[in-house]
Design goal:
This protein is α+β, with helices and mostly antiparallel strands. It folds into two domains: about 90 residues, Nucleic acid-binding proteins (OB fold (Dihydrolipoamide Acetyltransferase, E2P)), CATH 2.40.50; about 290 residues, 2-Layer Sandwich (BirA Bifunctional Protein, domain 2). The protein has twelve helices and 16 strands. The strands form three sheets. Strands 6-10-11-16-15-14-13-12 form an eight-stranded mixed sheet. It has a five-stranded mixed beta barrel with strand order 1-2-3-5-4. Strand 14 and strand 15 form a beta hairpin. Helix 4 crosses helix 6 and helix 4 crosses helix 7. The longest helix is centred in the N-terminal third of the chain and has 23 residues.
Length: about 425
C-alpha cells in the first residue's frame, strides 16, 4: 500500500499511515492513541487482542506505521480530525522513543525557551513551533514570488569577505589560508555591484554580526531578504517594500490560516505611512540627531497601528558611509536613507547609495574608514555606475512580528547567539 497523510484519508478506505505517537489512552477493553504526521492528527483504536501487546510498548513520540480501516467517528479531542478514526489491523513500531526531556503535547506544561532550544529537534515536533516555520516558509516564498514576477534576478553572494561591509567593527574573523577574512555582516556591497550591471536584483542570504548583546530582538546569525534597484532613489525602493510586505501578509492570510489559528494570531494586511525624520522628531518629541530608540518605535506603532511606518530623509551623520547625501552634496545634512517600522519594531533600513567614487572616498574618511580596504568596491563605480538604491528585511524579525513572538529566537530553527552554538 502507498502511504497516505492524515489530511487525505477518506471514510471507508483501507490506509497505510506513518507518523508519531502524540497521545496514549489505555482503557480496559480498548486501546487508543493519537497519530500525528506533518498534515494533522487522527485517533487510532486497537480492538484486536494480538495488537494489545504492541500497544504496551508504545511511548510518546515513538515512530510507528499502521494499517487500518477508516471509520466514521465523532472525536472531541482538540486539534484532531473530528470526522474519522482508524481501526488498526496492523501496527509496527519503527523507532521507539526514549523518555522525553521536554513535552511536545500542547496540553503539557511548556518548558522554558532555553530548554526547548537545547532540544530544538524535539521542540520542532510541537504544532505551534511548526506553525511558525510554515509561516516563515510562506514569507520567503512570497518574497521570491513577488520579485520574480517583477523580473528581478535572484543572486547568490559571498559569505566570506575581505573587509567590513558597513564600516562596523563587530565582525567574526576567520583564517582564510594565509589571509585574514570575515564572515559577511551584509550583502550590501556586492548587491550594489550587481545593480550597476544587471539593474534589479534580490537575495535571501545569511549574515553574521559579532555584537555581544543578549536581547529578545537580536541574533548573531540571521538571514536577510535584500533588494537593490538601478535608477532608483529612496522613495522608489520604499514603495517596493510597502508592496512586498503587503503581498507577504496577504499570502500568509490566504495560505496559512490554520497556522495562524494554532498561534492565535489575528493578522491584518498593513497600511503604510511615510514621514520624514524631521517630522518624526517633532511628533515623538525626540532630540534631533538621535536614532530611534525601542520606545520610539513602539510609540510609532501606537500612533499608526497595523501600519508600515517609513521614516525617510535621515541625518547623514546617522547613516552608513554608502548612503547618498541629499542631492549628492557632500556637505548635505540630510541623506537619502530611511528606516521602516512595523508592529513597533524596525524591520529594515535602506536608501539610495553613493555611486560616485570621489564622494564615496570622502564619506569613508568621514567615518574614519580606510578607502584602501574598499578599493574593489570603489573601483566598481568607475566604469558607468548608475544611481541605485535598496534595502534589507530581517527574515527572522519579520517572522517574529507576523507570528507575534516575544523572543526572536522563536523564529529561528537553530538560533546562534552569544552563548548558543548547539544543536
Amino acid at each position: 500500500m502507498k502511504r497516505k497523510y492524515v489530511r487525505d484519508i477518506q471514510k471507508g478506505e483501507n490506509v497505510l499511515l506513518s507518523g508519531w505517537v502524540y497521545e496514549l489512552r489505555d482503557l480496559a477493553k480498548l486501546k487508543f492513541f493519537l497519530l500525528r504526521d506533518s498534515s494533522g492528527i487522527v485517533q487510532c483504536v486497537i480492538k484486536e487482542k494480538e495488537l494489545m501487546q504492541k500497544f504496551q510498548n508504545l511511548t510518546l513520540e515513538s515512530v510507528v506505521e499502521i494499517k487500518g480501516k477508516v471509520k466514521s467517528a465523532n472525536v472531541k479531542a482538540e486539534s484532531v480530525r473530528k470526522d474519522v478514526e482508524i481501526e488498526i489491523t496492523d501496527l509496527e513500531i519503527l523507532n521507539k522513543a526514549e523518555k522525553l526531556p521536554i513535552q511536545v503535547h500542547e496540553k503539557a506544561v511548556k518548558a522554558e525557551l532555553s530548554t526547548r532550544l537545547d532540544y530544538r529537534f524535539l521542540d520542532l515536533h510541537r504544532a505551534k513551533t511548526q506553525a511558525i516555520f510554515r509561516i516563515q516558509s510562506e514569507i520567503t516564498h512570497s518574497f521570491r514570488e513577488f520579485f520574480y514576477n517583477k523580473n528581478f534576478m535572484e543572486v547568490q553572494l559571498p559569505s566570506v569577505i575581505s573587509s567590513s561591509s558597513e564600516g562596523g567593527t563587530e565582525l567574526f574573523s576567520v583564517n582564510y589560508f594565509e589571509k585574514k577574512a570575515f564572515l559577511a555582516q551584509s550583502p550590501q556591497l556586492y548587491k550594489q555591484m550587481l545593480a550597476c550591471s544587471v539593474e534589479n536584483v534580490f537575495t535571501i542570504t545569511p549574515v553574521w554580526r559579532a555584537e555581544k548583546h543578549n536581547t529578545i530582538r537580536h541574533l548573531n546569525e540571521s538571514r536577510q531578504m535584500d533588494i537593490e534597484m538601478a535608477f532608483a532613489g529612496q522613495m522608489e525602493v520604499m514603495k517596493e517594500m510597502e508592496e512586498v510586505v503587503k503581498y507577504i501578509t496577504q499570502n500568509v492570510l490566504k495560505k496559512c490560516q490554520e497556522e495562524l489559528e494554532i498561534l492565535g494570531v489575528k493578522l491584518k494586511v498593513p497600511k503604510s505611512k511615510y514621514i520624514s525624520y524631521d517630522e518624526t522628531v517633532k511628533l515623538l518629541k525626540m532630540k534631533y540627531g538621535e536614532d530611534l530608540a525601542p520606545e520610539n518605535e513602539k510609540e510609532l506603532d501606537k500612533k499608526f497601528p497595523d501600519t508600515i511606518v517609513f521614516v525617510y530623509s535621515w541625518p547623514a551623520s546617522l547613516k552608513p558611509f554608502y548612503i547618498m547625501p541629499k542631492d549628492g552634496k557632500s556637505d548635505a545634512k540630510l541623506s537619502e536613507g530611511f528606516d521602516a517600522i512595523y508592529r513597533g519594531l524596525e524591520i529594515s533600513s535602506g536608501g539610495q547609495r553613493i555611486h560616485m567614487p570621489d564622494l564615496l572616498i570622502e564619506k569613508l574618511k568621514d567615518k574614519e574608514l580606510n578607502p584602501k580596504d574598499f578599493k574593489s568596491y570603489i573601483d566598481s563605480f568607475r566604469f558607468g555606475a548608475p544611481p541605485h538604491a535598496g534595502w534589507s528585511i530581517g527574515l527572522e524579525r519579520i517572522t517574529q512580528l507576523i507570528t507575534e513572538q516575544v523572543n526572536i529566537r522563536e523564529a529561528v530553527l537553530f538560533p546562534r547567539d552569544r552563548t548558543r552554538l548547539t544543536p
